[in-house]
């Protein structure tokens, strides 16, 4: 288990919402139709860039790469996800395979073994 950076999504929804809001707000600035049009276009560009950055920032974050040794298989698998459950090395997990592979704590599994010396233990 090691920390990783999970990239945020770039679906275009944030950019579209930001551009719409920026264009709407920008079009209220100015006196004549030319000024309002230019302000609306500028607001849409700035809003689109801000919306895309906000979308990417809110959907990304820090996660963990879990290396899992499945029962009966010789090759381990890796799963990248956040660790809301506080999973620790050595703990038994349930692997769910749909369009994504996710892991969760196995219900009724024995407690995880104590951490090995030098990993998660205080040195005295």
From TrEMBL:
UniProt domain Glycine zipper 2TM: residue ranges: 13-55
Lineage start: Bacteria, Pseudomonadati, Pseudomonadota, Alphaproteobacteria, Acetobacterales
Annotated InterPro entries: Gly_zipper_2TM_dom
Primary location: membrane
UniProt KW Transmembrane helix keyword: no
Region of interest (Disordered), ranges: 105-124
Tagged with keyword Thylakoid: no
Family: Belongs to the rickettsiale 17 kDa surface antigen family.
Organism from which the protein derives: Caldovatus aquaticus
Pfam family, one: Rick_17kDa_Anti
Name of the molecule in the record: 17 kDa surface antigen
Topological category with respect to the lipid bilayer: Lipid-anchor
Subcellular location per the Swiss-Prot or TrEMBL entry: Cell outer membrane
Keywords, comma-separated and alphabetical: Lipoprotein
């Amino acid at each position: 288990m090691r920390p990783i950076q999970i990239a945020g999504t770039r679906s275009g929804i944030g950019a579209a919402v930001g551009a719409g809001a920026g264009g709407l707000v920008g079009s209220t600035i100015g006196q004549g139709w030319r000024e309002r049009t230019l302000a609306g276009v500028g607001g849409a560009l700035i809003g689109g860039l801000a919306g895309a950055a906000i979308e990417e920032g809110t959907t990304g974050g820090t996660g963990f790469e879990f290396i899992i040794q499945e029962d009966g298989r010789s090759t381990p698998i890796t799963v990248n996800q956040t660790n809301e459950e506080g999973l620790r090395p050595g703990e038994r997990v349930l692997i769910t395979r749909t369009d994504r592979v996710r892991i969760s704590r196995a219900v009724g599994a024995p407690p995880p073994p104590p951490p090995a010396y030098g990993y998660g233990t205080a040195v005295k």
